Amino acid sequence: MADKKDFYELLGVNKQASADEIKKAYRNKAKQYHPDNNLDDTATAEAKFKEVSEAYSVLSDNDKRAAYDRMGHAAFEQHGGGGTWGGGGMDMEDILSSVFGGGFGDMFGGGSRRRGPRRGADLSMRMSIKFEDAVFGAAKEVQYTCNDQCGTCKGTGAKPGTSVENCKTCKGTGSVRSYQQTMLGAMSVSSPCSACRGEGKIIKEPCSACRGQGRVRANKTLQVTVPKGIEHGMSIRLEGKGEPGDKGAPSGDLLITMQVAPHKLYTREGTNLHLEIPITFVQAALGDEISIPALDGSEVKHALKPGTQPGTVVKLKGKGVPNVRNNRVVGDLLVKLNVTVPTQMSDRQRELLVAFNDEMGEEYKDHKKRWFDKVKEYFK
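Now predict its structure.
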């Protein structure tokens, strides 16, 4: 046993670990290496599973652990496979039951190792929609290619007129049991049946359309309802529209992630919309009635107050975006008023502006001076 790994190292605990710590470590390792969770490499997983189970069987027993701490693996060599420690055959389920409170199947969802038909895989795709569709919702059509249930055999994989039979090797259980002599005695281990690949069923006459797979590639077209208020990057889930399950098992889901195109005028922040509108200096100074376009195509009249300052934000309640989870809650449209400054003027226009500035008097000029004084004071 010189080449055997240290039992404490196998479980990932130190020599001072308590019984509860050892039990918890074994629980995690057993789940990690259980063959049902490692169908791509069951042989390696079973070997690891046996090692950690053997380690736990020793370290969970006070007498065995004390002997192991004194002599290591040599403590068990003289007993010829564990005769002194109880002898006879030991089923791995007996070890597992002490940790998981039940038999071999209690831990892994059933009393057998049968894999059985698997649920279909989920599919994902992206959908590009307009800004308005995300706000107000829309009905869209999507097309995609995926595996679909074979229409010839209805997903069974068997030729029409024939039936799927129980595997004679495992008698329909999907697992076979082997026995191995260890230091703990004869230990039995369940593993997926190689004849039926753990399914418990055999197809003698496969369907010619799908070659016994129960699935074929197909182009699909679906009508999708885009909910009001959905945001860029959000997904909607269509149950049962993914890959079909294995031989009659439930289908997976289709997840569609929304890619929302930007708008030329509006931007969005949560359930609020933002819009910038230009107004003239005269409108800002004297006041005016302006029309504000809403995203739904309507126009809202708004009275500008005399002396409206650049950057003023006007809030239009309820003209924003519906909450995607509660459409009765609608955000606002926030309109920022930008005062436009002419870039080209005639001589006459410049003369009028200079005259206007002079006409404003010292109070207007002092207002500007006081602002700069505040800035200077701040930076002192």
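The mean pLDDT is 82.
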